[in-house]
Amino acid sequence: MENKETGEAVELAEGIYWVGAIDWNGRDFHGFTTPGGTTYNSYLVVGEKTALIDTVKEPFAGEMLKRIGQVIDPEKLDYIVVNHMELDHAGALVELKKLTKAKVLITRRGRDILDGYFKASCSSWDFEIVRTGDRLSLGGKNLLFLEATMLHWPDSMETFLQEDGILFSNDAFGQHAATSKRYDFEVGDMIPDAAEYYANILMPFGTPLLRYLGKLEEFGIKPVQIAPSHGVIWKQDLEKILKAYTAWANGEVKEKVLVIYDTMWGSTEIMAREITEAVRQAGVEVKLLHLRKNPRNLIMKEMLDTSAFAVGSPTLNNGIFPTVGDFLVYLKGLRPQKKKAAAFGSYGWGGGAVKTIEQELKNSGVDVLEPGLQVRYRPEEKELEKCRELGRQLAEIAKK
């Protein structure tokens, strides 16, 4: 397979083509910082009949249609499989349907969401509702549909091409990376990118993911390629990514501590550094993460396999610093598993930050060590020793 940057469709196997789009300059994915851009992957399956699996984000419709047109006339499409109605995958659906009368295969919940977005456009479309175990024969190519509810929307579905062993997994197993290469073995180790993607998008859905992995076993599905809707296709490291997803879904952690903080006049930073150094001296991996110097998604990637962490903030207007509040709201939505945490911070004439952090951590389902550690103005030696003691306590938790 030779993939040149010419806008060409890329053949993945006989009759199977990548016809998606590359968002080279995408830098934000609803709050997820993407310095390396992303891709919107769409796949064309050609047997005696043809099926397109997912579309792309609406501004990239022309790029997708150009690639489809290099293989077949888009008007002659027989089926469009909608694995997921989020608009980075279904945004170009209306533009595509202007050119073709292809039947749309979608889950019941996906059909409801489609109406919510495109009701004015889709009233005359030909639909077929599919469920787990349903199959579609294209003549020499057979598709098996598997509902993947809450990975990560209610309508999510995955499609397995039986003859070629390709699992079109939509948002599962994805990564945000813009690359002219289509396979993992062409670009190097993509597990860290997949970890960051999982931590920021799929972390709350470990239980549905384990059910889904069990469904693959139930149907005897052993893919030889996993083709997600973002990033590269897994082939060389396929077993690694399956093993990693199982570990992440089970909330497996290691001896690791994070110290996450922001500071106004340096007092909270002094505390953060003392806590970090005590963890390091205890022989446990530790990372010190300033909230204005590290994007939320990078911190959540580090959180994925962390045993314990501390969150620090100065008190501002009887509450927490804005960046700390932003992070805690983000954390609550992702609901990390099997973590213990502590709050710390500094204050002047009135406190409040530490108690607010503790409450927000509890709201996130995190096991909170109480009481938190707070220092008035700048820490002196006795307060610094308390910081070191907190670091040693976090290290012991990680070791257990």
What is this structure's SSE topology?
Layout (H helix, E strand, L loop, with lengths): L9 E4 L2 E3 L2 E3 L4 E2 L2 E2 L4 E3 L2 E4 L3 E4 L7 H9 L9 E3 L5 H4 L2 H5 L5 E4 L1 H15 L4 E3 L5 E3 L4 E6 L9 E5 L4 E5 L13 H4 L3 H12 L3 H13 L6 E4 L9 H12 L6 E6 L5 H15 L3 E6 L5 H8 L4 E5 L2 E2 L2 E2 L1 H13 L5 E8 L5 H11 L3 E10 L4 H19 L1
Parallel strand pairs: 8-9, 9-10, 10-11, 15-16, 17-18, 17-19, 19-22, 22-23
Antiparallel strand pairs: 1-2, 2-7, 3-6, 4-5, 7-8, 12-13, 13-14, 14-15, 20-21
Task: Please give a handful of descriptors for the protein shown.
Rossmann fold; disordered N terminus; Metallo-beta-lactamase, Chain A; alpha/beta; 400 residues; 13 helices; 23 strands
Walk me through the structure:
This protein is an alpha/beta fold and 400 residues long. Helix content is 35%, strand content 24%. The protein has two domains: 10-249, 4-Layer Sandwich (Metallo-beta-lactamase, Chain A), CATH 3.60.15; 258-395, Flavodoxin domain (Rossmann fold, 3-Layer(aba) Sandwich). The protein has a seven-stranded mixed sheet. Helix 9 crosses helix 13 (381-399). The chain is elongated, with a radius of gyration of 24 Å.
